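Much of our argument rests on the idea that a fold can be written as discrete symbols. The amino acid sequence and the backbone structure tokens for this protein are reproduced below:

___
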Amino acid sequence: MGKRFYKFKAWPSLDLGTCAHFEKDRQRVIDIVKNNRLYMPPYEKLNDPFEGNVFATSLINEDPSIEALLEQTAFDKRLHEQLRDFRVLSFSQGDSRGGISTEWSQLMWSHYAEGHTGICFGFTFSDDEIEIESVDYDKPLTSKMADHFVKNDVRRLFKYKNKVWKYENERRVIREKSETDNDYVEIEIKEVIVGYRMSKADKKFWYEQAKKKGIDISIAVINHSSPSKMDKTKDKTRILGNRLPDFGK
């Protein structure tokens, strides 16, 4: 059995109607289950605007000249030209960091599943040989490191993020655009978890989708013994119940 990973997605509620914009976003999420694949966005589409940025403030403070600033600007331009050659698939590993499993982190549900109204997919990779990179949150990315990576292996820049993102427990698949014509990575969906604030109509929709595909489905709920954490249940009445069910019963 392969290691299980998790991908959180926002889900535009069916209650919002059939607006073309909402429907397009829904189809992107449905595609994950329908075709067992995840989209690999190009570098410039990653959600962290500081991804791959290197701030040489210490160097500039030592040499606050126009020449130093111009040199840094030229370096940044060369760096981002190289980074644009890559696609990066980001997801979370299902084991725990700090005692809280990623898929049950309130922050992940709030930030990546539209305030608990979205969905989380548990999956494994179809290709057992796929290269999965861990993200390092504890080692600051310096200009010296970046300069080395630019000259030797620029993809390593995608393995470092600011420590404020540590709660994500992120893993990545990093590919150069020239390596593949496919913008997707094949996966095997193992479970669907709906957010506890998802509407009744949306939960029914996903319940039917999961059952049609033979996939386990559950709903994320508050863990009353530890309110800072989430839990899950496969109880059909709670999955299909009204929004904000009574978690204490």
